[in-house]
Structure formats: structure tokens, C-alpha cells
Amino acid sequence: CVLQPTECFLSQPEEKQESTVKAKRRKKKKISDVLQKSAPKPGVPADLQNLLSQHFGENRSVIEIEELKLSDSCFLPANDLSHSFSSYLKEICPKWAKLRRNHKEKKSVVMLVLCSSALRSLELIKSMTAFKGDCKVLKLFAKHIKIKEQMNILEKGVFHIGVGTPGRVKALVEQDGLCLNSTKYMILDWNWRDQKLRRMMDIPEVLYKHLYILYSVYSLLLFLVLRSWSVKFSFC
């Protein structure tokens, strides 16, 4: 028998599907595009409370989540975006000079400032010159600084302000290198935006890494607050 030649036709659906997927990917909006069109808004207590509820929501009952919530009286007015960092700190902490003089405890700080990175921590330290006066400020981040070194510094000296990342703060607390009982102010660098206009909560790697650690620190603070520990939260 003689085989008749047949024509081969390449099916096109897969190419169309692939081009459709590529088109969808091209049309996907970036977080910076969305934020560019949205006006900056100061952080509010509900922002932190909502993130806390989302974090604990899967593992705790509704009643347990309600018990973890802080009242609005635990929060100071947020930076309305018209202040510099120093002027904002002066407004929310008018008796800073007295608090600074009375603080004598080692392994602790009066004010704890949490931000997303080591570089941002250095920026904040430089920008608070007009506020801090003669007080001692300690860098609390991992970049180029070993945790043992920070623990030794905290054990030997008295520091008034700690500025750093949630990861290093959590590690110091867990290893008994930093005590939070003397902390009166916890400042969250909530409103700052990077070159892509993203805040701390808008960056996925920060949201799922740094803020996850912040939740742990925050839950510890809640435990202490429920025991009549005096601390004020604020969004700068």
C-alpha cells in the first residue's frame, strides 16, 4: 500500500493562551502605581489593630482577639505629616528632659523607635538631633553590629532612646538583652515612604518578615500593658 502524504497543522490555542497571560501580566498594576494616585494618610490605631487581628485571627477566638486589643487611650496623636521627626517627638513628649534625667536603668530605653531597615534607622537618628539633646541613642539593628556587642553595651551603660528594626529588638528581648519595663514610648515609623512610595506595611517582604516580628513584640507589650504597664504607642 502507498501512504498518502498528509499535511500537518500546528494548533494555536496554547500560543493565544500564553500571549493572553503575558498581556495580563503586563497590565498588572504595581503597588507604587496605586500609591502614587493615593494621598498620604497618617497612621491610626485601627491600622495596627487590624494587622494584629489578621495575624492572630487564625489561631485565636474572637473573644481572645478582643482581649488583646488596646484602647485608643494607649495611642498618642499620629504625625499629621506636617512635622519633622524632632518636632513631632517634642509635641508628643513635652516632658522629655525630665524623663531623660530620671532614667537610670541599664538594659532598657525610655523611647523605642521601630522602622523597616538599618539605613532608615540611621536617617531617623540623624533627624532627631534637635529633640534628643544630651541623651544617649542606641542603634538596634543587625547590619554590621553583632547582637552580643549590643547586649554588652546595654548591660554596661544607660541609654534613653533605641532605634532599630523589629527583628533585632525581638532578639534582644528574647535573650534578656533588652528590658521593656522602662519603655514609655513606642514609635512606629509608619508614614515614611521609600523611592517607590511604599510604606512599611506596603512592602511584602517587610510586611511578612519585619511586621511578623513586630506582632511578637507587640503581643509582649500588650501582656505588660494589661498588667498596668504605662506605655504609649505612636505613628511617626
TrEMBL record:
Record's GO cellular component terms = 90S preribosome; nucleus
From the record, what ranges are coiled-coil?
none
In its keyword annotation, does this UniProt entry include Transmembrane?
A: yes
Q: Does the record's keyword annotation contain Heme?
A: no
Transmembrane parts of this sequence: 206-226
Residue span of region Disordered: 19-42
Keywords for this protein: Membrane, Transmembrane, Transmembrane helix
Domain of life, source organism: Eukaryota
Q: Which PANTHER family match?
A: PROTEIN CMSS1
Q: What is this protein called?
A: CMS1 protein
Organism the protein comes from: Oreocharis arfaki (tit berrypecker)
Coding gene? Cmss1
